[in-house]
Amino acid sequence: MQGLIILNQLVLNGIDINPGVNDQGVVKMKVVVGLTGASGAVYGYRLVERLYGTKVELLIIVSDVALAILKDEVGIGKEKLSKCGRVYGNSEMMAPTASGSFQFDAMVVAPCSMKTLACIANGISSTLIARTAEVALKEKRKLVLVTRETPLSLVDIRNMEKAAEAGAVILPACPGFYHKPKTLEELVDHVIGKVFDQLGIKHNLFKRWEGSSR
Length: 214
Ligand SMILES: Cc1cc2nc3c(=O)[nH]c(=O)nc-3n(C[C@H](O)[C@H](O)[C@H](O)COP(=O)(O)O)c2cc1C
What we know:
The protein has 214 residues and is an alpha/beta fold. It has a single domain, classed as 3-Layer(aba) Sandwich (Rossmann fold). The protein has eight helices and eight strands, in the order H-E-E-E-H-E-H-H-E-E-H-H-E-H-E-H. Helix 2 crosses helix 8 (184-199) and helix 5 crosses helix 6. Residues 1-17 have low confidence and may be disordered. Bound molecules: flavin mononucleotide. Flavin mononucleotide is lined by residues 36-39, 63, 65-66, 69, 90, 113-116, 127, 148-149.
């Protein structure tokens, strides 16, 4: 028991070793990650990889365009995702997450396209990702949207406002630079760290700002 408690406090490769399990090794956090067809597929893949490392139970939903972009930008396919958790297609409306009776703790959509944002903001639950986000909102569970588009149209901005009013956290894929990133990985990890902050998972994926040295 003592050993397990100590293990719970360890940090390895920038992430808590097991915030997703309790002292008995039982999973205590279920997270749904939706990947949609926006550029920045690496954000979704990295998030899934990092969450897998924490032993959080993962359910992954991936749209067709997201899969194509994942292949094009990152060079990986569905099989890599399925190493980290259960993977569902965006049209699999019979999946567990489509029902509010299925208990998950949080959902992150990364990257989140403006089309999926529009669906979520306007209650159009025609895909599994949009429906699961609707479930998160109605059940008052954490919903984080890692939006990716630039520039933004007024429609996008209004949809962000609507989603935020409904309870979603809008967390644009917009890394900071105060931690002086030297690699693409460090840049991406800044955004992933911000997502971890929202999920309440301890990490050291980036060095926090502690004021400027005089
Ligand atoms: C290569 C590529 C890059 C794209 N990048 C973006 C993007 O960064 N943001 C966005 O909102 N849509 C982007 N799109 C458009 C979306 O893929 C499109 O709106 C699609 O319908 C989104 O569907 P989904 O949200 O169900 O995955 C991109 C499409 C392609 C083919």
